[in-house]
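Open question from group meeting: does this chain pack into something compact, or does most of it stay loose? Before anyone orders reagents, we agreed to write out a predicted structure and look at it together. Recording both the input and the output here so the notebook holds the full record.
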Amino acid sequence: MYLLGIGLNAIALVYAAMDGSPLFAVTFGIVMLYLGVRYWMLTTA
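C-alpha cells returned:
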C-alpha cells in the first residue's frame, strides 16, 4: 500500500512540476518522503 501511495505521489509530483505549480510539487515530494520513511520503518522492524 505504501508503494502504491509513493507511486501515485510521484506521478502527481511530475504533473504538478510540469504544470508550473512548485508548491504542489514540493508537497507531493514531502508526502513521498514521509511514506518512504514509514515503509522503511515497517520493513526493518
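Observations to bring back to the group:
The chain has a mean pLDDT of 95.
The chain is about 90% helix and 0% strand.
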